[in-house]
Write a structure and sequence with these properties.
Layout: E1 4-7, H1 11-24, E2 27-32, H2 40-44, E3 47-50, H3 60-70, E4 74-76, H4 86-94, E5 98-99, H5 104-111, H6 113-122, E6 130-132, H7 140-150, E7 154-158, E8 168-170, H8 176-191, E9 196-200, E10 205-214, E11 220-227, E12 231-232, E13 235-236, H9 248-264, E14 269-278, E15 283-289
Parallel strand pairs: 1-2, 1-4, 2-3, 4-5
Antiparallel strand pairs: 6-9, 7-8, 7-9, 10-11, 10-14, 12-13, 14-15
């Protein structure tokens, strides 16, 4: 067991990690910015260190330096910031520090949503009809050709996006170019990656997530499912469990598919497998999240 863990995050997730570490007798190192100096996670941790970099909690160099300085044996990234950065996980390993999250190879395998969907489709599971969009130098005719193959209505999505950011629903071809520009700009600003793809809208549908836990020996379990179908601006308003849209047979089938997909990617640690369920009861895989879920408490 670890003696000391650095938590590279703030707010609710940091306080939950600190609480668990206390119960396990593990010392904790908190990080904070000037704006966060009076936050609860700073007061609860055994020690706290201020970040100086403008990158804040995403400052990999500074986070690693503080971990080494404090003697932290592991870094828990929480969610966001460095949580899904394979390169950071590799750097932790190179410094002899444990990254508490999926291995770099797993993070890379599921980071591109389009590539993950293609892999799942090859394995025989349902995925929404989708295609990669050409780059920023493509003309509208090229965009329309790809979108036409997928069909309308569709969603323009960031290849690395999450939480509905960098996504635009397009109901008609006349709105495609404008939506692509807006989605690419947002994706570049937030993720530093303007790669996009289009996905055929599955409607009507329910949005379901199965949380999974996996060890390094191939053992994978699910923690049930959540439903987050009620959204505003692509952001979930309410999540509930068990999902009211499923019967017991559907629920068991969904769990099994989620575990199978996690095993297909050699998943380790904690994460989630996400689906859209259509009116016929088909489960359309959309992505794997290689990190602890924001809504894990549900």
């Amino acid at each position: 067991m670890f003696k000391k863990i650095l938590i590279a995050n703030r707010g609710e997730i940091a306080t939950r990690i600190i609480r668990t570490c206390r119960e396990m007798g593990i010392l904790t190192v908190a990080l904070y910015t000037n704006a966060d100096r009076d936050s609860l996670h700073v007061r609860l941790a055994d020690e706290a260190h201020q970040l100086q970099s403008p990158l804040r909690y995403g400052a990999a160099d500074e986070v690693l330096a503080i971990a080494k300085k404090t003697g932290a044996e592991a870094i828990h990234p929480g969610y966001g910031f460095l949580a899904e950065e394979a390169r950071f996980a590799e750097r932790c390993a190179a410094e002899g520090i444990v990254f508490i999250g999926p291995p770099p190879a797993v993070i890379r395998a599921v980071r591109s949503k389009l590539e993950a969907m293609e892999a799942v489709k090859r394995a025989g599971y349902c995925v929404p009809l989708c295609a990669e969009l050409p780059g920023a130098d493509a003309d509208e005719a090229q965009l329309q050709r790809v979108a036409g193959e997928v069909g309308y209505p569709l969603v323009v999505k960031s290849a690395r996006g999450g939480r509905g950011r960098g996504a635009r629903v397009v109901m008609h071809p006349d709105k495609l170019a404008e939506s692509v520009r807006a989605a690419r700009y947002e994706a570049e600003m937030i993720y530093g990656d303007g790669n996009l793809y289009v996905e055929r809208v599955v409607a009507p549908s329910h949005y379901l997530v199965v949380q999974v836990l996996a060890d390094a020996h191939g053992n994978i379990v699910h923690l049930g499912e959540r439903e987050g179908s009620l959204m505003r601006h692509n952001q979930k308003l309410i999540e509930e469990s068990p999902a009211p849209s499923l019967d017991d047979d559907q629920r068991a089938a969904l769990w099994n598919i989620a575990v199978d997909i996690a095993r297909m990617f050699n998943f380790q640690n904690t994460g989630a497998v996400e689906f859209l369920v259509d009116s016929a009861g088909n489960f359309h895989f959309t992505e794997v999240k290689a990190r602890i879920q924001i809504e894990h408490g549900v």
